[in-house]
Each structure stands twice: as C-alpha cells, then as structure tokens.
C-alpha cells in the first residue's frame, strides 16, 4: 500500500521538523480490492497480491492480502484496513470479501457477512433489509467485477459477501446503532481515501441522522456537543434514539443540512465554552479550529452590569469556565446571553428555514444554566 503523504503534519520530538500526516484507505476501497482479488482467484485460481484498484479520482493504490481462500464454488480474500494517521475506529479491521457465482441473470448481489450491518430504517441511501454497503463502494465493486468478467467472457452474475470480524463491537463506537444499522459496521467511502483528521465522515453521519429522522416523520431532534449536555436535554424530552444527532463540534454541518432538509424543532445542547464559540459565530467548535474571545465575554458581562473591577480578571482568564465562575460569583448570569447569542447564530445559518431553535447551556455536571 502507498504511504504517500497527505496534507497536514504531525508533531515529533522537540526541535524536530513536523512529519507529514499519512493518509489511509476507506473500508470501501479495501472491500473493492479484496473483491477484485477474490474474483480473479475464482476465475483463474491465482490471487493477485498485492492487488491494485483505481479509485474514483484516478489514484491506484496497491493492497497486500492478509488472508486468501479458494474452495468449491467460492473464493475469499481479505485486507487489513490502514487508516493512515487518522484516529479511525476501523483502523486495523480485517475486511473480507467472499465471492460466489450467482444464478444466471441475477447480476451482482451484495450480502452482509459477519460484522457488517444491515439497514433497518428508511432515510439512508441503502434500502431497509440491504447490507450496509454504501452506493460508491457498491459501484466500485460492480465496475471491477464487470471488467474482470468481461475480460474472461463471463456473465457478471455474482454474490459478494463482505465480512468484518469484530465489526459488531466496532460498530458500537459509531453512529450505526442510532441510524438503525444493526449487526456491524458500514462499508463506506466516496473517494476511497481517508484524509487524516478529516471532518467529512462525522458530518456525513450527521446528515444521515437527519435523513433517518425525517424519514421517520420526527418533528424534534437534538444536537449536542457531548454526552453530558445530551443527557441533560434528554431528561427534559426523552426523545427516541434516532432523534439524537451527535453534533459534537460540527454545528455548521448540522445547521446547513437542516436549512435544506428542515425538521420542525431543533434543540442544541452544550457546555458553556462550546456554546460561547457558537455565540461568537463559530460553526466549528473544536479547540484547534476556534477560540474563546475573552473580550466577547467581557462585553456580555458588562451589558449585565459588571463593573471595571472585574474586567481585567475576565480578559486574563485562561478558560471560559473561569470567566463563568467569576461572573457567577458576583451574581451575573452570563449563560443566558450566551444561549441567546448562540441561538441567533443558529437562526442566521438556517436563513429562515422552518426550524424552531432552542438552546440549552449546561455546566460540566449536566446542570442546566440557561434554556432559550
């Protein structure tokens, strides 16, 4: 497999230059390569190793086989997923493709093996009852199978079963349970490439969650920055699990999608610091991509009657939490204007879409500080 560097760097020792972050490969790319190897062996009796595939943007990575098997009427090949330097929960997972001949005229059929999920709810790009193998990986596998079969003048009538040992356990760390995907992970990827610390997969999951909620005709969804604020809001609403959108730091990804695919009511719940960033107008709330502006917090405190005696203390505070505690100590409720300003930011992104917005600010223990 290629270790070509992608954009971005990683820290090394003191005084050493930063090294480029290494990109990796999606589960869809691994499944496609494993399928190519298995089908080739089914026809010729020989496994290509390493096996190369052409990705949607023209790259040609090569994958070493981790497992191979050839029996009466089937062939199996496996590839261990390398996610590069991305903290991907499927890094190191074994992606297995087993290929069987199918009935004449049946075309290519995909099946979920051990550790690959099955879709159970509408709203996703794959219909309920189907293996959780997304459209782009399906298209990649179909294209390579049709190409190989044409080369040997054979019909592309095949059953492709994708399996991932331990996939059911891995899936517990993903959105799949909330999206109604049961039994394992999804086979994903649009470009075939995993970019280190990419936001795209998380935002894609937020979009999928909204699609599932809309398909279920839900009228109220909850986007929280973390589990503490989600639990606090759930004590009020007790929404169904598919209404819980794991927004995390990606407020913009949530709001922009709801602008085009509205749901009647959105509750945004989060800690004081994260929602201060949203109040400032930031849509990506991660600590590396947006910062707390202490001048902003002082301006809000001043509007509520804080005098100059506390100004320098707020401006020199190390964290938003420290500023919050200072103002609480003099009887100023800074959480409410932050909730109001965060709601204003959200409504601005929605641009008049028919979505009612509520904002809940919590402390670190999950106590509600403000609800607007």
TrEMBL record:
Gene Ontology BP, a term: anaerobic cobalamin biosynthetic process
Enzyme's top EC category: transferase
Protein name per Swiss-Prot or TrEMBL: Cobalt-precorrin-5B C(1)-methyltransferase
Pathway(s) served: Cofactor biosynthesis; adenosylcobalamin biosynthesis; cob(II)yrinate a,c-diamide from sirohydrochlorin (anaerobic route): step 6/10
HAMAP family: CbiD (MF_00787)
Protein origin, superkingdom: Bacteria
Family: Belongs to the CbiD family.
Region spans: Disordered: 1-24
Alphabetically ordered keywords of this record: Cobalamin biosynthesis, Methyltransferase, S-adenosyl-L-methionine, Transferase
Record-listed E.C. numbers: 2.1.1.195
